[in-house]
Structure formats: C-alpha cells, structure tokens
Amino acid sequence: MSRRLRRKVVKKGKEKVVLPSYPEIENDDGGLGFENKGFANWTSLPDDTVIQLFSCLNYRDRANLASTCRTWRLLGASPCLWNSLDLRAHRCDSAAAASLASRGMNLQKLRFRGQETADAIIHLQARGLREISGDYCRKINDATLSVIAARHEQLESLQLGPDFCEKITTDAIKAIAVCCPKLNKLRLSGVKDVHGDAIDALAKHCRNLTDLGFMDCLKVEELALGNILSLRFLSVAGTTNLKWGLISHLWGKLPNLTGLDVSRTDITPNAASRLFASSQSLKVLCALNCSALEQDVTFFATYNNNNNINNKGKLLLAQFSDIFKGIASLFADTSKNKRDVFFEWRNGKNKDKNLDMIMNWLEWALSHTLLRIAESNPQGLDTFWLKQGAALLLSLMQSSQEDVQEKAATALATFVVIDDENASIDCGRAEAVMRDGGIRLLLNLARSWREGLQSEAAKAIANLSVNANVAKAVADEGGINILSSLARSMNRSVAEEAAGGLWNLSVGEEHKGAIAEAGGVKSLVDLIFKWSAGGDGVLERAAGALANLAADDKCSMEVALAGGVHALVMLARTASLKECKSSKVAARALANLAAHGDSNSNNAAVGQEAGALEALVLLTKSPHEGVRKRKGVKLIIFQICSFDDHAT
C-alpha cells in the first residue's frame, strides 16, 4: 500500500476546476482500500477538520494520532495546536523539554508542576511565552525563577500557587520586575517576606501591572504597594501582619484600584469602612472568613440591610452577605434570578470590558478563597456552605477559566469531607451539591479532554459518592461508565481518582453489577498491573474496589476471569515488603474471593496461584501491626488450606 496525493478535477461548463488535494491511500492494485470495502477514508478529511480533531485530544492522544501517517504527523505539529501546553500530568526533565523545543516556538501559555519541570522550562526555547502558571512550587528557589524570568522577556502573566512558595524571596521578585517589563499579572502564594524594594522594582519596571496577588505571605510591605499606581486588582488574602491603619490611608489613594481581596485576614470594620470612604475607584472588597468583620454586630447589620452595598455604591462580599445578590448588583438589569448571575454574564450579548475584567477577577478570587477555606475547614460555616457556598462552587465550575474550574472542583471535593481517614463526609453538604445539579455538572467536567479537570471532577465524584443518595444519583446519571473509562487513563492522577470513585460506589450492592457491566472490573485489574512499580494510592483504590466487588458471588467470578487473582497476589507480595496500605486491601480482596466456598471456583484459583500462600504468610509476619492482625489474611489461609484438605 502506498500513499499519493491526487488532484481532483471536475468540469464546470467548459472549464476545469481543480479541487483541494486530500491524501488518499492506494492499494498496490490501484484501488483505494477503504473506499472499495465501503469504509470511510479518514485520510481524505480536510486539513482543518483534522486539526480540529487534534485540538479535542490530550497531548498523549495527539501523539498517538500523529504517529499514524506522515500527513497527520505534520498536521499534529501545526503551530495552532501548540500555543498552550500543560505539563502537570507528565514528568518533564531537561531532555523531554528539549524534545519539545521544535514545537515550542509558538508557545504562549504554559502550565507546569514541581521543581524538576520548572528547571526544564528554559529547554523548551519558548521565548515568546506570555503566560506561565505553576503549582507544587515549594522547592522552587530564586535561581530557578530568576532564570525563567530572564529567558522569557515577553511574559505577561506569572502565577505560582496555591501551595506555598517557601524558597522564593524578594530577590526573585526583583529579577521578575527587571526581566519582564510587559508583566500585567503576578500572583504568588506563601512567600515569607515581600520587601519594599521588590515592590518598588515592580512599580518602576512593570508599568502595565494591573493584577497583583501576594497571598498567604507572612509579611508584605504595605507602604510600597501604594506606589504601584497601575494596579486595578490586588489580593492579600491570607497574609498576616498587615497594618490596617496604614493600608486604609495609602491604598485608598491608588487611582485605579477596582477590586481588593482581603479574605482570611484580620481586617477590622474600621479599616474596611475607611477603605470604602477614601477610595474613589474601589468597587468590590472581598472579605470572606474575616472574623473581626463577622463578629461586629453593627458592621454586619449595616451591610446586610443595604444589600452588601455601602452608601457610595461599593460592594462588600463576606460570609454574612448574600454574595450572588451582591454580584448581581454590579449589573444594570437586576431583575433576573440572582443565582444565575455568573451564567447570565458569561452568555450575555452586551459585553462591558471593565465589567468583564471585574467578573474574571472575582471568579479567580472566590475560587482561591473558597478552596483555602475548604482545606482549613473552620468551625461555624455549615450555614454558609449550605445556603450559598456549594452553589458558588458549582457556578465557578462553569467558568471559562480552566484554573477556576479546577480550584472549584477541588474545593467541592474537599468541603464535604469531615474525616479523611474514616471516609466520613457531611451528608447535608453532599446533598446540597446534588440538589443544585452538581452531579451532572461534575460528570460533564469528567468528560473533558483536559486531564486536570478530569482528575479534580473524579475526585469530587468519589468523595460525594460516600453518601448513598449521591451514589445513586451518580449511577443514574451514567457516572459508572464514565469512571470506568477514566480508570483506563494513562494519567495516573486521573486513574487514581476514578478508581476511588468506583471503590466508593462498589460499597452499594446495587452498583456492583453495573460496575462489572461497564468494564470496571477489567479496568481495575489492569490498573494494578499498569502501576505496579509505584503509586500506592492508585493501587489501594483499585484493590479496595476489587475487594468490594469480590464479595459478590457473580462479580467475584468477573474478577477472577479478568486476571484479578494474579494481580492481587502480586500486589500482596510486593506491597507487604514495602508495608504499603495496598497490601491490607489486597489481602481483604483475596479473602473475599475465596470466601464463596463451593459456590464458585475462586477458592481453588487463589490456592493454585503461584506465590499466593507465601504472600499471605508474609503478611501475617509483617512488622506493621495493622497488616499482621488483619483477620482476612488468616481467614483466607484457613480457607485455602481447608479446600486443599477437602480436595485430597
């Protein structure tokens, strides 16, 4: 079979018209193989259609598709497919980055995770990068960040967080200011001390800096922040040791300051009132989880009675206020359902550039703060979460900003959890998510081609499914098929969260058959083989789901047929040596498989599996008490030995 291009010619009157050339596959006998057999010839698709197809795939699937033929390999390298790159799910060292350099010439947006990838960024040779966003940045130091800034002079946006940047100091911020004069957005989390000279450098060199965030910092020089006259949006959420008397005087003079986020700080009612009074430009003050404001009865009553707005028409967003109603007040038409304010704005025809900037910033600020509040889980927030917190997260999950969607999904997965160790969740919060249509929304996100969204959505579904009513809703909405499919992902994080979802769903007897029918058993067994070299989290979840399924007589046969006995024995042997949690779960799964007695042949299958008894005996001698005393281990040894005696 050989490839050739044909010029297609048709007659139009007396003229010959040359149609666009599309590649076709020709057999050695001169015929077109696919078309002669009645199949569609995919190679005849127009280039723009193929590129559109590529754009709907993740990077791994793009690479697989591009490897099918020379034409698609060239189309797969099209610059429009490589203007953004998300490396968070991939191990990217210097060699891997260098291999991508030929495609990085047009790269404008990059997301990465961790120190190793941060060190490798310069090898992408993407000098035209406009946006860089990183997480898991605890080990990133000044040297790495300074080199990144020096190599990317066109940078307009740099975001590191929400985890703390513990090794980044003022020196790196100064380097960013000097090297990236086009910077208009800088957001850093957890920097210990931001000195005035670094902030002054930003004011001097970054004249277009409109969006600045120093979140969860120990100390920020308040006086210097008052010198960045270009600022429109400022966040100091979670930052400590702020001098509010100085702030209310200085920041009120910033001529363009429109949005200020002071959530999770100790701002006083007096400072908030003075900020509103002194600033001519300030429109929105975010002050969620600020105890000093919430405990002041007079301040609370004043803003509640005025629909979150002071006498100068400025908006305060706090836990005691109606946040949806407050945001709706920013729009001229306030007659619509206040809960739909984000949806109406995103789909509105009459766009206002200034209002769009405020709303985009609000989405980010709210998603960041709600995630932080969900992680710390302070007391006394049940009413907030039930009345508006859950609905806010669901609204934010529909944002066009990918990082907002992910933070909202992560917060949703987190705020329902009461006790992580014992898998306890708040049923009221879980059912609030279900009532507001959250299950369908999460399942839609799980179908996304973006693996970051898949992972966070699957995590939320898994946690919510601990509640029996939510689990039923997930099953009814087709969630079992979606999770079974995600469990086959080549992305370990996605597969792990999907396996966790199947684990929680498999607790219900009514869901076990559906998991088997959806191919979930095979997916779970394959996970153990695929990630046997590492990743105890994914192994524990896969074995846990198989243990629950193995308790059902019919499903236990499916587990055995899918190679589950061999997989679980292998896991029990390797994990017991490393004292991993997955060894306990694997032992329980094997015990459940063998517990059916004469009703099926699984007892014999476990006994006949090479190394099974050896692995289980090793578990009884484990130095880890929880593994050694596991009843299921001794039970299965007894069952296997009893079966062998009976057979003899």
TrEMBL record:
**What residues does the F-box domain cover?**
39-85
Q: Which UniProt keywords apply?
A: Nucleus, Repeat
Cellular compartments per GO CC: nucleus
Q: Matching Pfam families, A to Z?
A: Arm (PF00514), F-box-like (PF12937)
Q: Which domain of life is it from?
A: Eukaryota
What does the UniProt entry say about where the protein is found?
Nucleus
Q: Which terms under GO biological process does the entry name?
A: lateral root development
Q: Could you tell me which InterPro entries the record lists for this protein? A: ARM-like, ARM-type_fold, Armadillo, F-box-like_dom_sf, F-box_dom, LRR_dom_sf
The record's principal subcellular location, in a coarse class, is nucleus
ARM repeat ranges per the UniProt record: 437-479, 478-520, 519-564
Family membership, please give it: Belongs to the beta-catenin family.
- What is the documented function of this protein? Promotes lateral root initiation and development, independently of auxin (IAA) and abscisis acid (ABA).
Matches recorded under PANTHER family? PROTEIN ARABIDILLO 1
Protein name, per record: Protein ARABIDILLO 1
